[in-house]
Please model this.
Amino acid sequence: MSNHPEKHPEEQLSAYLDGELGEEDRMLVESHLKECPECRMLVDELLSNQHLLLSAFESMSPREDLEASVAAHISKEAHPLPVVKRTLSFALSAISFFAVIGLVLGALYIKMFAGAVKLMKPLLFLSTHLIAEMPLLMGVVILFSVTALTLSAVSLLRLLRTTTS
Ligand SMILES: [Zn+2]
Model:
């Protein structure tokens, strides 16, 4: 038993994973895998590639699958009415249309939200700044209103004096 077998059954690994090997070859590959970490890594890689491919394929064509399976289901259940089929495909395309619109709107909304957050930051900073300088601001406002009040009182008094005399 050697730790590093000379011949790696690299070409047979994917066939092994697909279950396409004969009993003898399968046993050979399995016993090789038990002793060869390199080939085990290769198998892991092949498996993860297979999973990636499968999931990519599934995410690429879920609608066709759905349509086909629904159509198959209907034709199995009863005689498929062309109107039903047409309505179904219309509904499916409407659903995918709205899904696309929803996705686009969602993306836009997320962008807008990010923009709003960007805008909010300086506003928030400004408002906290204003609140921090509130006593000064309030003082200015009070000063202005007091001046305005005295000015109007003075002019009212003057008006009263001119009308009485
Ligand atoms: Zn090997």
Q: What stands out?
A: The mean pLDDT is 80. Residues 6 and 36 are 10 Å apart (CA to CA).
